[in-house]
Amino acid sequence: MTAQRIDGKHISEVIRQEVSEQTRKLKEKGIVPGLAVVLVGEDPASKVYVGSKEKACQQMGFYSEVHRLPENTTEEQLLDLIDRLNKQGSIHGILVQLPLPAHIQEKAVIDAISVDKDVDGFHPVSTGNLVIGDDSLLPCTPAGCIELIKRTGTEISGKHAVVIGRSNIVGKPVAMLLLRENATVTICHSRTANMKELTKQADILVVAIGKANAIDSSYVKPGAVVIDVGINRLDTGKLAGDVHFDSVQEIAGHITPVPGGVGPMTITMLMQNTLIAAKRINGIKE
Ligand SMILES: Nc1nc(=O)c2c([nH]1)NC[C@@H]1CN(c3ccc(C(=O)N[C@@H](CCC(=O)O)C(=O)O)cc3)C=[N+]21
Q: What's the sign of the alpha-carbon dihedral 177, 218, 249, 222?
C-alpha cells in the first residue's frame, strides 16, 4: 500500500481563497485586516519566513508592516515597539519572529503582545483559553495540522492520536487541539520508554521533534494519518522532515510531505487568525 500524500500547498491555496473572499467583504465595511511582523537580527531562515508572510499578506489584500530591527536592539526598544503596535488601529495582528537574539527574553516579549492581536497564539492567556476550550486565536502550526487531518476526511473523534514532541509552540498545543476534537491523546517525548509501542497504536501520528528522518515505518501503524511538522535543513541544502517519508509512505494511509505539507499551512493559519482578529476587534460576528 502507498499512502496518499496530503497536499498542504493545495489545501493552503483553497483556504487562502476563502480568506481573500472574506477580506473583500470586510473591506466593504471599511475594515482592512492588518498584520505587523517584527524581525530582530539577521537569521537567514527567519528572513525567508518573514518574506513569505509579507507575500501572503499582499495576496490576501491585507495591510502589512514588517519591522526589521538590528541584532543589537534592546528588549526595552522591542517592548516599546510592541506597545505602539498594540495601540495602532490599523494593526490587528502582531507576530514577533522567533527565535529572538539571546539578550532578549522571549517570555517578556510574548507577554507584552495584546491578547486580541496575538495571531501566533503564544500568549499565556491564549494558551489558557485553548486549554479551557474558550475562544482564542489558535497557534498557527497546530491549527494547520488539525485542518490537514480533517481534509483527508478522517474523523478525529474517538481515534488514538499520538504526538511526538512536547514544545510549547507545537507538541503541547496540537495535543490540546486533538483532545478538543475528542481524540484519545498520548504525548511522547525524549524520555518516553518504549515509544514504538505507543506510536504503533496511533491512528493519527503528529511528529514535532526537530530531528531529520527520525521516524521510519517501524513506528507507524498501517493506515495511519502521519503529520510531519519537522523542517530540517540538511548539509546538502535540502529540506527534510522528522519523518522518513519514503519508508513511512509504504505503510501509512495519509502522509504530509516536507516541504509542501505543514509549512504552508502555518502561514495560511496566520492569515486566517489576522482576519479573525480584525473581525473581533471591530465587533463583527463570524
Ligand atoms: N513567532 C513565530 N511564529 C511562527 O509561526 C514561526 C516563528 N516565529 N519562527 C519560525 C517558525 C517556522 N515557521 C514556518 C513557516 C512557514 C514555513 C514554510 O512555508 N515552509 C515551506 C518551505 C519553506 C522553505 O523552503 O524553507 C514548506 O514546508 O513547504 C516553514 C516554517 C514559522 N515559525
A: negative
How far is it, in rounded angstroms, from Cα 241 to Cα 263? 10
Q: Could you give the domains of the chain? A: 29-115 (3.40.50.10860), 140-263 (3.40.50.720)
Q: What is the pLDDT along the chain (286 residues), one digit of tens a residue?
A: 799 999 999 999 999 999 999 999 999 999 999 999 999 999 999 999 999 999 999 999 999 999 999 999 999 999 999 999 999 999 999 999 999 999 999 999 999 999 999 999 999 999 999 999 999 999 999 999 999 999 999 999 999 999 999 999 999 999 999 999 999 999 999 999 999 999 999 999 999 999 999 999 999 999 999 999 999 999 999 999 999 999 999 999 999 999 999 999 999 999 999 999 999 999 998 7
Give the number of the atom of ligand 1 that is nearest the alpha carbon of residue 96. Answer: 1
Q: Is 120 in the active site?
A: yes
191 is in an annotated binding site: no
Cβ–Cβ under 8 Å, residues 38 and 67: yes
Q: Is 108 in the pocket of ligand 1 (CB under 6 A)?
A: no
- Quote the ipTM score: 0.96
CA of 258, closest atom in ligand 1: 28
Report d(CA 116, CA 277) in Å as an integer.
6
